[in-house]
Amino acid sequence: MPFEDKQIPIREIVDKYVNNDEEGVIGYDGKLNIRPKYQREFVYKDKQRNAVMDTIMKGYPLGEMYWAENGETYELMDGQQRTVSFCEFVSGNFSIDVNGNQLFWHNIIDDQKEKILDYKILIHIFKGTESEKLEWFKTINIAGEKLTDQELRNAVYTGPWLTDAKRHFSKTGCPAYQIGKDYLTGTPIRQDYLETALDWISGGDIEGYMAVHQHDPNANALWFYFRAVIDWVSATFPNYRREMKGQDWGYYYNEFKDKMFDVKKLEEEIVTLIDDEEVQNVKGIYPYLLTRNEKYLNLRQFSEKDMRKVYEKQQGICPICGNKFSIDEMEADHIIPWSKGGKTTIDNCQMLCKMDNRTKSGK
Questions:
Q1: Which of 8, 173, 180, 320 has its CA 20 to 30 A from that of 90?
Q2: Residues 16 and 104 in one domain
Q3: What is the CATH number of the domain that holds 323?
């Protein structure tokens, strides 16, 4: 791939620097697009951001960066986090520790300012095709922060649809976060919210969905779908509990959105199940109530000691087929099932051969 190497001082990179959520992030006299559409949001924590400035002030190597030439302008492909860090400092937006003192840009003495502005960054300027650029970008680690799967997808399917989708799902405090933060895990800026919404609406075929909609003028369909999922969850389970966070709500919505639930009865069942000592997985209560599949509850199992006692009492005889088996060929079964009030106690245990147990249980 064709590259041209340049040593560019910070003073040129920060020239006409603008960081605007709506307009994007630009610098280098307005000619450098610091955050192209396929790039991630700024994810550095204060410690990492401050370390960038400490490196520069000490004159240590900051590491090479990569730009892509685009006619008369450039796109920053690798180095966004470091670039935004020193641009934000020179713009006066955060302070750093200098000899035990917290100093902003305007507090720094003139010779220190000049040292920072004169610091040169090694830039590799890429001049390949658009497809080569995006393919290469997929392999990049940005300042040690490995790209997430969704960030890699964003690099491939950039376009008007993605720009609008990121407006809803990928900004700090974005609309999706405002309505979904109690139900989703992860953070918007690492594309977790966008990935989750796409996973739900596509049934797991995220790449296929993005390929179909890449050139759509907006992402309204995805946004309306996400809102519908959150509205359905909050209406079906109006009393929020922390166990509701991180569930596969979109998949449940897809399957059960047209089913009529008795919300009051569901709440009564939740309270009962939380208090049930047989239920080992409280988080599984919600998918259980929707699917009625007991596997989600991780019901308490008989201990090895109790199974051995019952096996010896039965002398290895399966009470259903009447044949004798080794203990390894048998499984513990609730005489009265949990769904009918049976408990995991030794007096409610019987040892059945595997075939009869699984036939009886419908496993």
A1: 173
A2: yes
A3: 1.10.30.50
